Amino acid sequence: MFLRIVKGILLTILLLVVALVVLVQLRWNRTFTAPTPELRATSDSAVIAQGRYLAYGPAGCAYCHLPKADWARLDAGEMPPLSGGHVFPVPFGDVRSPNLTPDASGGIGRRTDGEIARQIRHGIRADNRAAFPFMEYQDLSDADLVALLSFLRSQPAVANAVPDLRYNLMGKALMAFMIKPTGPARTPPATSPAGATVERGEYLANAVASCAACHTNRSQTGEYIGAKFAGGQRMDIEDDPTHVFVTPNLTADAATGLIYSWSEDDFIARFRKGRVLPVALMPWAAFSRMSDDDLRAIYRYLRSLPPAVNAVGEIYRTK
Question: pLDDT confidence of 232, banded at 50, 70, 90?
Answer without folding.
Answer: very high
